Structure formats: structure tokens, C-alpha cells
Amino acid sequence: MFPKNFEPKDLLFLNKMVTPGFMTILYWLLCVVVVLGCLGYMFMSRSFGGVIGGLFGIVIGLLYVRVLCEVMIVLFNINSNLQKIADKE
Question: CA-to-CA distance for 61 and 31, rounded, in angstroms?
Fold first, then answer.
């Protein structure tokens, strides 16, 4: 979860990124929240429109969470590659 050669001072001075290690956990947590929230909406509305809205919300919500997490991972990968380039020079 933590980067290689991680020292406690890296956490305090933001020298190394720790968030990419938590992205998978965050992704699954957000997926559970989306599904439970939409299921709750479906059962609370008790109408056909509420069921359709809940199913639509699950699909769109899961896609939205996936895209957000992938964008974050891409940004961290860009940062990692820039660090490698900076270290070579």
C-alpha cells in the first residue's frame, strides 16, 4: 500500500504519494455506497418509476465512480512518470 522506501517523514512532507494504494479500497467502498443508496431509493419509492430510476442510478453511478477512479489513477501515473524523468536528469 505504501511506496517502496517509505519513511514517516515522507508522509509529513508529501514527498511520496500514498493515495494510489488506497484507490482500490476507495473504489469498492464507493461502489457499495452507490448500490446501497440506489437500492434504498428503489425500495423507498415503491413505484415503477422509482425502480427504473434506481436501476438507472446504479448503472450511471457505477460508471461515474469507475471513471473518477480511473482519472485519479491516470493522474498519479503521470506524476510517477514525471518523477522518473526528473530523477534521470
Answer: 8
Reading the block at residue 28, the C-alpha cell is: 469498492
CA angle 29, 66, 21 (to 5 degrees): 60
What does the buried/exposed string (b/e) look like for 51-84 if buried means 16 or more CB atoms within 10 Å of the residue's CB?
eeebeebbeebeeebeeebeeeeeeeeeeeeeee
Note every long-range contact of 17-22, with CB atoms under 8 Å and residues 24 or more positions apart, other chains counting: 17/76, 17/79, 17/80, 19/72, 19/76, 20/73, 20/76
Listed in sequence order, the DSSP H helices in the chain are 8-13, 19-45, 48-88
Per-residue pLDDT, averaged over 6-27, amounts to 79
Report d(CA 27, CA 70) in Å as an integer: 9
Q: In this model, does residue 57 exceed pLDDT 90? A: yes
